[in-house]
Fold this sequence. Notes:
Elements: H1 3-13, E1 18-21, H2 28-34, E2 40-43, H3 47-61, E3 65-69, H4 73-88, E4 92-98, H5 114-118, E5 124-128, H6 134-146, E6 152-158, H7 183-195, E7 199-203, H8 210-223, E8 227-230, E9 244-248, H9 254-260, E10 265-269, E11 293-297, E12 311-314, H10 317-321
Parallel strand pairs: 1-2, 1-3, 3-4, 4-6, 5-6, 7-8, 7-10, 8-9, 10-11, 11-12
Amino acid sequence: MRAADLMAKSLSQQGADRIFCVPGESYLSLLDALHDTEISVVACRHEGGAGFMAVADAKLTGKPGVVAVSRGPGATNASIGVHLAQQDAIPLVLIIGQVSREERGRGAFQEVDYEQFFGGMAKKVWEVERSEQLSEVVARAFHDSQSGTPGPVVIVLQEDMLADDLPEEIWPKMPVARPGVDLEAVEQAAALLAKAKRPLIMAGGGLDSDAGRAALEELAKKHNIPVALTFRHQEIFDNSLPHFAGHLGFKIPKPHVELLKKHDLLLAIGTRLSDTPTQGYQLPTAPEPQAPLIHVYQDASPIGRVFRTELPVVSDPSAFCY
Length: 322
């Protein structure tokens, strides 16, 4: 079959059911192949809008959002969605049509080195020249977008490669490893919580699931802890509950921030503790927090990067709360 048909089948195998795109000549054969699948193709008027739609789709479904664009300005327009996915830790797969193999490296019309362009914001960039690697790359892209800290990945398709003939060998879906719960860390957290008189939970996108929201609410009610929500995650905790301690976005009133600073234990759960929720690295203060910090995240890389952490915990945030 054509490599384009193999890719369409590989996308279906990985669970893709919707692709947002601005059609372009550099990947027309893939669009043709998608016509024969159950995948819904949503044609958009601008690549930036398509990227935002794919990110929203990922936030709503919990699955990687998929966006397809043509080369050059199509890809650069879509970069805003890639950056948003990186900032918000959202799984996203960006598919870009590239110039043909014989034109690659010659400065052809709208040719871009996407590994260089997206290398600083995407978790991984693959440019597929050999069609026999195509199904593997699709499987790895979906896997990597969801592993560790979720984020964007980029698949670049050289235009003539999509017309190659090859056997129908489709890579299976690759299960994503999830960190377990360290019971010793839970016991240490419980001991710190027992000593605290004014604990505060800072809850982020790692709890943005049905299980995560339920676990967060149970933790807050059981221990009577106020919950402050990070930027763009106001919806993960019932704002009508007395435990709701506000939203840590932009232009938060200074008295509100000063009040939250009076905590004597901070449980940062499911957040990377970037500059916005920490109010410019002042809640907690960097590098030495004003109170002990328990940081729970599914990936070790953000923990301890900016703040000295009393108890670093690599765990699924929902499981830790339970």
